[in-house]
Amino acid sequence: MKDLLRLLGLYRRHVGWILLSMVVSLIATLANVGLMAVSGWFITAMAAAGLAGVTMNYFTPAAIIRGLAILRTGGRYIDRVVGHEATLRLLADTRSHLFARMVPLAPAALDDLRSGDLLARLKADIDRLELTFLRLLSPLAVALLTLAAVGLALFLHDGRLAAGVLAVLVGCGLVAPALAAVAAAAPGRALTARSADLRRLVVDDLSGLMPLIAVGAFVGHRDRLIRAMASLVDAERQLARRVALGQVLGRLSGDLALVVALAVGVPLVAVGRMAGPDLAMAALLSLSAAEAFIGLPAAFLGVSSTLASARRLFAILDRPPPIIERIDPRPLPGGRDLRLDGVTLRYPGAFRPALDRIGLDIPFGSHVALVGESGAGKSSVAALLARLRDPGIGEIRLGGVALADLALADLRRTIGVVPQKPHLFTMTLEANLRLGRPSATADELAGALETAGLSDFVARLPKGLATPVGIAGTTLSGGEARRVAIARVLLVDPDILVLDEPGEGLDPETEAAVLNRVLDRMTGRTVILVTHARAALHRMDQVVALDGGRIVSNRPASAV
Amino acid sequence: MSKPETLLDDLSAGVRKETALLLAAAVAEGLLGVAAAFLTARIIDAAVFRGADLAAVLPWLAQLVGVVAFKAVIGYGGAWAGFEAAARVRQGLFARLLDHVGTLGPVRLAATATGDLATTLTDAVAGIEPYWRQWLPATATVAVLPVAILLVVLPVDWRSAAVFAVTLPLLPMFMVLAGRAAEQANQRQWASMARLGGHLLDAVAGLADLILLGAAKREVALVARTADDYRRETMKVLRLAFLSALVLEFFATVSIAVTAVLVGFRLLWGEIAFVDGLTVLLLAPQFYAPLRLLGTERHARMEAVAAAERLADVLARPTPRRTGGESLVAGKAVSVRFDNVAAGYGDGRLALDGVSFEIRAGEHVAIVGESGAGKSTILSLIAGFLEPSAGVILIDGRPLADLDLADIRRHIALLPQRAFLFDATIAENVAMGRPGDVTAALRAARADDFVARLPNGAESRLGEGGAGLSGGEAQRLMLARAFLVPAPLVLMDEPTAHLDAGTEAAVGEAIAALSAGRTRLTIAHRLRTVEAADRVLVLAAGRLVEQGTPVELKARGGPFADMLATLDGGGAA
To answer: Which residues between 100 and 119 in chain B have a beta carbon less than 8 angstroms from any beta carbon of chain A?
Structure first.
């Protein structure tokens, strides 16, 4: 419930559109209900007049029927347009709100979202929440208001008639689907869990298809998958039964309301307390009022998954941010010397600390290599320097000032990091390069590309810098993507450059050439090279070897 | 275009009984609605024009209750039949896809991203469900109900029947027109929604980079602006698209209004009986309802067809036909012979072209060559992940094609370059359902030390992709898996390529100990690996260009000598 309120809070800014959409939707629904009711009244009255041999004013009802037909058709159109307009406005707002809330969490508190699976789930959750209004709130509001209008129209003729019809419509059209949805919640949860299980097993087995087949374990795993599928279908069956029950009862509500209207109305006509045409009107009104309930079973069923989505999303947003920027940061000092003092970092749930009491001096202008096997803690040093995380114990100082005391914008302008797995955005090459400094001139771009060894590559592209890089840079090779990432950090022109495994995806000659040019460009400024390869070590001043989170050696490069 | 539809038809044929049941239920539900309209008209007629009281109409009222209750039961039954039909289809299809994937194997599927294939196996299999649960019942009602109602109305009031009959062909015509426009708009809308979602996901996935570049704040504004642009763009399309739906709706609604007014006047003039007039009015919405339902369920069919397209695409991939079922009786080592072997990956290019060589039992052979030279194709051919397009492969003198694939694989220990660990315990990852001494295998692979240090030892559960292990540790588990059961033929793709020097030495030692005396075929990227081999095969562009002992080849100054510089540890660095 709390999550639902919080969700509605996101909608507050667009309350005008939401109300407008509901009003239009209500008018269209009532026009349809009214069309049948007035038609029923009209033909009965005409028949009565015909039998009595008198004439009647048929202009007004005939005009009303035509008017309602047009109102219904036009109303549906406006309803669709306004409903989508409202939804898309909500969507734009929700997305930027969610994204803005995620920024301070990234990347350390969002590490798990790097997995495509979780990211896809996040997308599904956001989509579902954005459709909550169109699929859930609007139909429910319209159903309730239609109910009120129908009840009022019937009440004007007879209280018992109104009570009977409303009781059926509420019971069958509203309460029964709601109960069915409540009963479906448990199978729905089972379904979600089993569907996730199946997907996990499928991905795992497909990724490991070669070892599975090679050791002859495929048949066993295939049977396991088939069992997982059967259990998923079982959960779906439980769910489908309850859903079907809710839907059938929902559809039954109109028919039963008609029966009740007739059962109550016929005696009223017989004793002369109700006019004949009014009985026809009441009967058709009751029958067609059920149209307002058609969307409800689906809407109710969406409630629990919507709430689950909201819960998951809010749980992400409520994660504690990994670092907190000081409100009154200290000004950037003049010095650029780096000093790590007793720095210890432990990832939650890890067997051992990633960094264990690291002490290191990196004077401004020095070129330092951090070497060691994967898992030694090299990348953790890079993350701490960029303040993507803060050390659990110990401190890192830049020019004598603790990193935690600096403004993040100052810090990240000073220390540039090329991450181990850089992400290229689904934009043009140029837009990717300009991310850090949109104001960079063409010459600066060319210079950075030259240093990263991309000039020839760009020159060969038919569209040059305007080439789209594909989804997450998929049209580039790993080595090209890596060099784009280097170029875009070089454009920011940091005083301290951290390169995390820049050679990945590059052949040894290219790697050496790129490193050489980067080191030349950074002469007099600090470069920290994180690597497991031995290339270019001869150009470094200092080589620090890490193992298991500790410094095992720190020697001048000439001694390595 | 006809392919996905054919698949859906084929699948339907497998659940003929359920399908018939669900079609019958849909039609019966509609016909009971007609019956209910008849009864309703009679009750109102009796009460208004024949002075009947409740007792007089009670039999009809009771029948009406019976009809609507029966209609509800039938509706529930139809939903049940739809679910069961779809469930059976999906389960059968899932098993068929798994078997297909198993027959194709990892090498032929290498061009397909695992994520895509997984989505096909899960989402696409689920995605064909609406075809049975929504589309088929809608087609059944639309085929039967309007005609049935027309036949009922015709003798009662031919003028209303004429209105129905005239609008009947108009509606599908407009529906096709409107449907197509709406379909396109719908697709465009979802495509733009997807793009929008893609933009957000892209930004979330790259958030670390945005932060490192100090670009996060700008991106927040961009996310808002992009979403707003999409709103404007989408609404422009939708406003037009909904117009065509408007036309459709207009015809259906106006026909009802016209019928009501026409019937009203003819009642005034006494030309028809009231009960008939009311019946016609009550049937009018039911006449148009199936067509409108079909219009809304078109997207169910579109979804199902789109899913079927993905499924048909996977199922259409040709599988190799293997007939061999003989078993291999081998000693400690086997010999391998390639006789003029050619192979490709189905795109016309040959990965191997007329390659012949012989490996004696117990020999240790290294394969070198640039990437794309055909090195891994040789391993894939021997392991049966690929069939030669020409030539013969002989294992211990017997054609590989005659041997039972599962049996030959039991004789092979395969060590890939990259470790793959399942989301299971260490013991399960090593045993993989085979009998064998896991502890001994771990010890032989030098993995016992670090496994003992884990909280639950060999029963520790590994995360996705072996999370928490270093590259060396993971590779040692692969070694334990490969050597759990002794195999006379060891195929390796430089398993130490991604390890640092210290770990490489330890793993290399374990490999040497475990594969001693067996036939070994190794793809080599490092000079050290090459030098350890008895003999070297040099491949270039799918052809065997040189072979001999490492010393011979170095001395010869041919392609191998040129290649030495590019091998890790062989160059100047």
So the answer is: 101-102, 105-107, 109, 114-115, 117-118
Q: What residues 135-194 of chain B have any CB closer than 8 A to a CB of chain A?
A: 193
This prediction's pTM? 0.79
Work out the minimum CA distance from B123 to partner chain A, whole angstroms: 9
B186-202 pLDDT per residue, tens: 666 666 666 666 777 78
Is the Cβ pair B227, A96 closer than 8 Å? yes
The beta-carbon neighbor of A58 closest among B109, B253, B264 is: B264
Output the CA–CA distances (angstroms, integers) from residue B473 to A15, A374, B444, B504, in the order listed.
57, 11, 13, 11
Q: What is the ipTM of this complex?
A: 0.86
Q: How far apart (Å, rounded) are the C-alpha atoms in residues A405 and A128? A: 41
Residue showing tokens 């497991």? A532
Query: How high is the mean pLDDT of chain B?
Result: 85
Is 3.90.660.10 the CATH classification of the domain at A338-559?
no
Q: Do B54 and A485 touch (CB under 8 A)?
A: no
What CATH topology corresponds to A2-317? ABC transporter transmembrane region fold (1.20.1560)
Distances (CA, A) of A293 to A55, A171, A340, A462, B44: 39, 11, 66, 57, 25
- For residue A202, give the nearest of B122, B228, B278 by CB distance: B122
What are the structural domains, with CATH classification, of chain B?
Answer: 3-315 (1.20.1560.10), 361-383+404-566 (3.40.50.300)
Residues of A in Cβ contact (< 8 Å) with B43: 262, 266
Collect all residues of chain B within an 8 Å Cβ-Cβ radius of residue A212.
432
Task: Answer with the residue of higher pLDDT: A478 or B140.
Answer: B140
Q: Which long-range contacts (CB under 8 A, 24 or more apart) does B169-173 make?
A: B170/B251, B171/B248, B171/B251, B171/B252, B171/B288, B171/B291, B172/B291
Which pair of structure tokens corresponds to residue B193?
């929604």
What is the least distance, in Å, from the CA of A153 to any CA of chain B? 19
Q: Mean pLDDT, consecutive 10-residue segments, chain A of 560 residues?
A: 79 87 93 94 94 89 93 91 87 82 81 66 76 81 94 93 95 91 89 87 88 90 95 94 90 94 95 93 94 86 83 86 90 94 85 86 94 80 91 94 93 91 86 90 94 90 84 71 92 94 76 90 94 76 88 80
Length of chain A: 560
Of B44, B87, B500, the CB nearest to A279: B44
